[in-house]
Each structure stands twice: as C-alpha cells, then as structure tokens.
Amino acid sequence: MRRITTAVRQHPARTFIILLGGIIAMTLFGLSRGSDSGALKVGQTAPDFSLRDQENRVQRLADYRGQWVVLYFYPKDDTPGCTTEACNFRDDIHLLHRLNAQVLGVSIDSTESHEEFAEKYHLPFPLLADREGNVSAQYGARFSLGPVQFSKRHTFLIDPDGRIARIYREVKPKQHSSRVIDALEALREEPG
Hints:
Layout: H1 2-10, H2 12-34, E1 50-52, E2 58-60, E3 68-73, H3 80-91, H4 93-98, E4 101-107, H5 111-121, E5 127-129, H6 134-138, E6 142-145, E7 148-151, E8 155-158, E9 164-168, H7 173-189
Parallel strand pairs: 3-4, 4-5
Antiparallel strand pairs: 1-2, 3-8, 6-7, 8-9
Helix pairs in contact: 3-7
Domain Thioredoxin: 40-189
Family: Belongs to the peroxiredoxin family. BCP/PrxQ subfamily.
Protein name: thioredoxin-dependent peroxiredoxin
C-alpha cells in the first residue's frame, strides 16, 4: 500500500491517465456486453431501413427480400479489426452468393469514408452510412458516450422472409465470415 501511495504522489498525471483508461475500458466492456437485454430476438421481423451506400445509392432492407442478408455493424472504416472483418467477407463473397446471401456493412462513417474504404480494399458489397446512428440503435448496436458514437461489432442473419435467424453480439473479426457461412449452410438445411 505504501508503494502505491508513493507512486501516486510522485506521478499523479500518470496515475490519473491509468485510472481514466481503466474506467473507459470497463465502461466500453460493460456497455458492449450487457446493454442489449431488451434488443431484437431471433424470429422477429428485422426492422426495415433506408441508408445510402458508398456510391450514394439508397439501400433498403426490404429490397433484399427473397435472399439471405448478412447485416453486419462495425465501429470504424479502415481500422484493424474492421478491415480484417470486411476483407474476410470480401474473400468469401462467392461462397456467400452461392448461399443466396447478400452482405451489407453498416457503420456511422460517412458515404465518402465508405467509398475510400471500399476502394482501398476492393470491397464488393454495400457499406451503409448510418450517420445519425438510428439504424444501429434499432438493432441494439449503437454505442454513445456524450459526443462519441459508433456502431458495435454485431451481426444479424436475416432470412429471405425478413426475419432474424441469428444474432452475433460477440464477433471475432478473423473467424466471423466462416462462422456466418457455417450458420447459413445449417439454416438452409433446416426444415421451414
């Protein structure tokens, strides 16, 4: 205890930064896990939306009826985890299309940011600009802390009738695309 007291006295700024970082980490961890208890559930109709993509075209969820939709929310264009996740969907796009699935990425970034991200990594699917965070909020995927706002890394598999078939609230970017493909294959085999 004496060492801690001495360290705090000798380095108050460093101690403050460490404590602040810990508080922020606990807040982010807690909000990203436990805040979705009243959120959407498997079997419910997925909320429809209308958002612009990286080419400034309006995309509506209803336009994809008749096929599976992989609706994935992510925090920020061109960041390590988000790039890994997007590039894995890109690399698996032919498998996803064979399963009659369309990938739609959603973040709070602008259409211009999405355009740069899509061009840089040759992403062959729409990236939707949820600038106000309303769609992210509808899906329980928005994080807000004062002026800081972003989409949480959540994914929804939506069936051809527009119902939510799977929800992923804990996503590991490296394995996520293959996990989604496995789920789509299993869901297509279920009687229904």
